[in-house]
Amino acid sequence: MCLAVPGKLLDAQGDDPLERSGRVSFGGVIKVVSLACTPEAQPGDYVLVHVGVAIAVVDAAEAEETFRYLRAMGELEGLEPEPPPAAAAP
Amino acid sequence: MKFVDEYRDAAIVRRLSEAIARAATRPWTVMEICGGQTHAIVKYGLDELLPPGVTLVHGPGCPVCVTPAEMIDQAVGLALRPGVTLCSFGDMLRVPGSGIDLLTAKARGGGVRMVYSPLDAVEFARAHPSQQVVFFAVGFETTAPANAMAALRAERMGLANFSMVVSHVLVPPAMRAILGAPGNLVQGFLAAGHVCAVMGTGEYGPIAREFRAPVVVTGFEPVDILEGLLRCIRQLEAGRAEVENAYARVVRAEGNLPARAIVGQVFEVVDRNWRGLGVIASSGWGLKGRFAAFDAVKRFGLGAPAAAAAGECVSGEILRGLKKPPQCPAFGTRCTPEHPIGAPMVSSEGACAAYHRYRLRSRSESAA
Ligand code: SF4
């Protein structure tokens, strides 16, 4: 049930933080979702939607970083790169 | 779809599984927490790509599976009251209580309505002022912001016909209960990425240190899961027990602060009874006093639900990672998705349903 699906935010409306909402396209299927938890989301961003609420904005730069590392893993056969050092929690 | 398809890349999956095989010099048992991860693992056969000795066991992260039977009985009882509409996520409808399930209650004329979002239940209440609308609020931390928003919106609208049965559960106390239980097999965790998207990673450091168990925050696609597992195995091999984030495109260390603020307004920590696991202290969320008017238990004068008997289902051992579904004597015979005995056979995220759907053919070998 913690399934959450990334979709592209098309627009956003509403000034009240609790009522702010936007239309999100999931591969062409469009739904209205609450943006109350993602006030920073801008049209064009990918948001992760769970039971009608966007719970995160997908960080495209981080995603690209992961793929750089994954691709490097294939090219440097035998030379294992260390996982990226970032993001260890305290 | 962007941020989905590229994480199912077969070449990267193969490379990651080879890297895991090179990294693992000893047997290791790692638990993935979330039922969504369990389904991806079984569906894509990721466990079959692992070297012998590296075992993924499936955790308690299916809210439908851990909602106690007596709470379902309570929801069924409400649905059968005249003038009441019980709104629920679709996954809950076929979960057996100690008597009938919600779908059967509906067939008998009970007011049962499936909703996609708790906000839809609030909207339904607003549009049907003559109905008492009760939302069955289950879920982990991921679902809590939406459920909390339902309470906040109902309060703001002054809805007198909306209330909630809350059976919210929390992941970190369940991890502690699993690691601390006698006979525990779990040496490291793939933490549930979407729970962490809301709550951040701060709660896992003390668990990792106290139990010497690495915790790697992990996403839901095949590439995500194998990357999380690779990082977990590398920690285990190096004797490290730290919190790592392998889902950085979604999870920040502090989580989602606006979502946590919304949850904090509505819910407070309470003890919770988990189906199959029993009562775990401070392992759930209940409504704060400010929202007492929206508490269905108070509104309808429901007493503490009577504990339902456990029966034949061994879901407790499944949820603790001690058994896999094919080891249950009822699996695929007396217990099937059409006639489920236990909750993990019903839910789209339950481990038994995943094995039944994707693995039934290999049942005899796995059970051996
Ligand atoms: S197969 Fe059925 S009875 Fe056995 S553990 Fe799973 S849900 Fe319970």
Overview of this protein structure:
The complex is a heterodimer of chains A (90) and B (368). Chain A has one domain (5-73): SH3 type barrels (Roll), CATH 2.30.30. Chain A contains 1 helix and 5 strands; from the N terminus they run βββββα. The model of chain A is unreliable at 77-81 and 86-90 (pLDDT under 50). By secondary structure, chain A is an alpha+beta fold. In chain A, strands 3-2-1-4-5 form a 5-stranded antiparallel beta sheet, with no helix packed on it. By secondary structure, chain B is α/β, with parallel strands linked by helices. Chain B has a domain at 64-170 and 255-299: HypD, alpha/beta domain 2 (Rossmann fold), CATH 3.40.50.11740. In chain B, strands 4-3-5-6-11-10 form a 6-stranded mixed beta sheet, with helices on both faces. In chain B, strands 2-1-7-8-9 form a 5-stranded parallel beta sheet. In chain B, α2 packs parallel to α15 (351-359), α6 runs parallel beside α7 and α7 packs across α12 (257-266). Chain B is globular and about 65 Å long. At the A-B interface, β1, β4, β5 and α1 of A face α1, α6, α7, α9 and α11 of B. Iron/sulfur cluster binds next to α14 of chain B. Iron/sulfur cluster binds at residues 312-315, 318, 325, 328, 330-331, 335, 341-342, 344-345, 352 of chain B.
